[in-house]
Amino acid sequence: MLLNRNKLGSVRPPKRCRSEMDTSSASDIVLIHGNSHPDLANKVAERMGIKSGGCSVFHKTNRETMVEIGDSVRGKDIYIIQTGTKDANNNIMELLIMAYACRTSSARSIVGVIPYLPYSKQCKMRKRGCIVSKLLAKMLCTSGLTHIITMDLHQKEIQGFFDIPVDNLRASPFLLQYIQESIPDYRNSVIVARNPNSAKKATSYAERLRLGIAVIHGEQKEAESDEVDGRYSPPPVSNNRTRTISVSVGVPEHPPKVKPPLTIVGDVKGRIAIMVDDLIDDVQAFVDAAALLKENGAGKIYLLATHGLLSSDAPRLIEESPIDEVVVTNTIPHEIQKLQCHKIKTIDISILIAEAIRRIHNKESMSYLFRNVTLED
Questions:
Q1: What is the mean pLDDT of the chain?
Q2: InterPro entries, from UniProt (predicted)?
Q3: Where are the domains of the chain?
Q4: pLDDT at 36
Q5: Nearest to residue 161, comparing CAs of 120, 129, 126, 127?
């Protein structure tokens, strides 16, 4: 074997392949998971060439969550894979207890891998409620997590709620690849934003694919912010007292919003319509949008999103709708929904999560995973 020597005659160590995790580094990493998505955790472990750590998460008869970590985690880097599902509250408690168990067992670092962050849609003040995603961020930081890996947050500003580093990965490269490789004649497509709030994401997809864009405007029902909640109503007047001064004197009246009927801004006649969004939960709005696209002469209709929660009777609604195909990633388990609806397709993103874990563990730059990706993706 030829050894590389420098000018002083000392031997330089041979270069190692960056794509491989060395033995000493791999021995310091422990990958554990809860009950939310064991299939994804096993795929990530397989791609990394390691086995998932021995962690048992179960519920007692009184529904309390119990966590038992079988292997030693002292001085090791722990990666906890736990995503959000329909059982979001249990998913969160499992993650919090697993993180705290690792913290009290003297783990060196604890990274939470949360492909879909629950409560991410509750990131704004609504009525007399609260910003739940900030509360969740504080709980995760207090439990002992030192880093968060997530994917396609509903709003990128959620990262500011955390006191620890957050890597918000993007699934758009996988979805763009699917459009180019699996949708016939995709050049005759138009990217559709289901509402004006999704216009930025749709614009980003359209610019990368060199396609046109259409935006659906209007609502069939009142928005949540327009519902009567009594916030602007005057206090009640008792029978034996009269109010001498109106509380609204000098304050301009707040005009109500008038939602127009659903209309399409853009041309979709004779073209393939591709709707893009970050989350598919209640699909009724997407079904209504697809029906409107069909009425305006659209050909095939595709629906692409990162997270496929597919709550309630979503499979039946999709099966009976004009939507030809629904494409989501496997950040959330949806095997049962796929059995109920043949239109649902899945893209595996375990390779992206595995590469993110490898780069963080080896202290490599994460910028490679964000190349050519804008904040609107």
A1: 87
A2: Pribosyltran_N, PRTase-like, PRTase_dom, Rib-P_diPkinase
A3: 29-169, 172-219+262-347
A4: 96
A5: 120
